[in-house]
Amino acid sequence: MREVAVIGVGLSPWGEVWESSLRTLWTQAAVSALADAGVDKIDAITVGSMAPGLYVGQEHLGALLADELGVAGVPATRVESACASGGVALKAAFAEIASGLADVMLATGVEKMTDVSGDECTAALAAAADAEQEVFYGATFPGLYAMMARAHMERWGTTREQLAEVAVKNHAHGALNPHAQFRQKITVEDVLNSAKIAEPLNILDCSPITDGAAAVVLAELSLAKKLAKGRPIVRIAGIGHATDRIALHSRVDMTTIPATTKAAQKAFSTAGRAPKDVNVVELHDCFTIAEIIVLESLGLCPPGEGGKQAPSGRTALGGALPTNPSGGLKSKGHPVGATGIAQIVELTTQLRGEAGPRQVAKARVALAQNMGGTGASSVVTVLEVAS
Amino acid sequence: MREVAVIGVGLSPWGEVWESSLRTLWTQAAVSALADAGVDKIDAITVGSMAPGLYVGQEHLGALLADELGVAGVPATRVESACASGGVALKAAFAEIASGLADVMLATGVEKMTDVSGDECTAALAAAADAEQEVFYGATFPGLYAMMARAHMERWGTTREQLAEVAVKNHAHGALNPHAQFRQKITVEDVLNSAKIAEPLNILDCSPITDGAAAVVLAELSLAKKLAKGRPIVRIAGIGHATDRIALHSRVDMTTIPATTKAAQKAFSTAGRAPKDVNVVELHDCFTIAEIIVLESLGLCPPGEGGKQAPSGRTALGGALPTNPSGGLKSKGHPVGATGIAQIVELTTQLRGEAGPRQVAKARVALAQNMGGTGASSVVTVLEVAS
Fold first, then answer.
1. Residues 8-37 in A contacting B (C-alpha not used; CB under 8 Å)
2. Which of B98, B103, B99, B89 is nearest to B49 (CA)?
3. Cα A140 to the center of its chain, rounded Å
4. What's the pTM value of the predicted model, to 2 decimals?
5. What is the tens place of the pLDDT at every residue in B156-167?
6. ipTM > 0.90 for the complex
7. Which one, of A51, A118, A129, lies nearest residue B127 by Cα?
8. Beta-strand pair A212-220/B234-243
9. Pair A322, A347: CB distance under 8 Å
């Protein structure tokens, strides 16, 4: 199997981007990644997007966006696994290069979420859950993650303050990231006093609604070395993808995410790495409880100790395991289809040593974890500086 | 690059299937394909589906359907390229096996289209066109293909009767297919006298709205040979995928589909084959004019002579180039995300010599052409009996 490296990264503006349409946001990210890579020819495109039909009345994003980029003709495919759509777009592009079907690919993600009302947006996101067994009965994602939080608190003694500490840390990181949607620092009191959404989660435990796009250029490793021009080469050392029972009530245990554990095992074994080797992490903190559970499910801390990680400083910049240096979904924003690709953008920037004030010192091995629904889909990627 | 073969095929019931939901249809096709292949373990799943969010309020089909099949845990990804979603699901699964990421894959397609009103269905299908540049101005697919038909008639002298002959032929084929949605034979007069939809297209020029699913099991070739149990092995000899300007008004020429030509060139060159080698074809006759244009774009007849193929008998069962022996989209039905996979089901059945009364004699090399929108996405696959 051929090896694959990331040779270019790009982001559109993220936030409530009223002045741009989906295609414009995507093209900004794509052009930026191609310029960063220094290539003007790509063999194929993947586009991760969760629900453009529901958000902007547009499916068929592959052809639409290849056309918008000015490369109509190039094979272009949308892939979707709810909020893990970016992760599966990366994996699909990885497979095409690994197989020899392509040498250079543009792997992207995009979501334009603010062109609909809040209720319509919640309904579109709910399409990641089981429509017949969860959504029809009134479940929404804040409600589902609230149940996971309550179960984790009950089982492991995780506290309301520990949840808040995740948001505080990620906002502190995001304050250093010019691409973040919310760059203000917040306090534990801010989180505790913010509007209640679904007990025990308040509004500042929730990632925001975001318009945005992200893109990475991938190349076969030997070609990547030729194109590197002295910059560090970031290799995809391992990628794992797994699913789980989709409905939360079908799971044996709501306090862990087995799809993330399975995907991580695959990614680590392919990379020949273990959790102890990881220097920097971007993970899917769609809600504060998610970061806590995911750290445990990845094997980056023991079961039940996820809540202690942010308060201890371990997962902050300067700690032993900086987690979500970009600000994470919480502060950087969460355009759902783009998130999995944006994680790779951040980690590539970190491994290149180009992250400026939020740079993680001596980052050589990085891990990205992206998930859909309440964890029914998960993609875990291990990135390394190639020697 | 590793070689890939089709080792099992399956279809759900197709039609207005009121008594089944999307997940039930899909699972029927998947179980049927796995039973046909004689395997009970798969490494990963791809699901082609165009607009389940708009049709049934459900995205995240990968995880949902892996769960429904009882294999939660297995990586499962939805892929989408409008009505070419099945084709890209095949290609994505092909890439995973070719790369070595998987040995056995389930490549599938599904659409549940009759749970919404006719207007909602037309709107969902329109999401395959350019929402901002076509749909907002009132374009729908019958209207867009009507313009293509008018342009083809104007340029090449194609007649209203020649369009009708395509529908007559495909219904004659579908009458022999127990899986077809509409099994009645029709006449040229029936077509000419049927309700007008978008001049010059009548209702009997249009493929129907269909609920249905299709599945194929793919395996690495040497493994496929071990599992064959004496049945012919159907190899994917070449697969091509291309895009084009998405909006019809952006194209230089409305009477040809360049994405199909590009995809075919790639598929033929990989297979080491030419149009003259093809014994049987399944192509994307979403409207009668589409079959005419696609035959030309594939190089299976000279430009401008597509209209003469059905009246001459060449593309009928018993002719030199039987086209759409299944009945095609017109008679077999067109659950949009499933169609590209169902074409592979039909051609595998033909190459195995298991097509019963619609069997094409001495079929050794087969071609499938699946497209999205007005041809902005196209996937062409060459299948062969492996020696």
1. 21, 23
2. B89
3. 20
4. 0.98
5. 999 999 999 999
6. yes
7. A51
8. unpaired
9. no
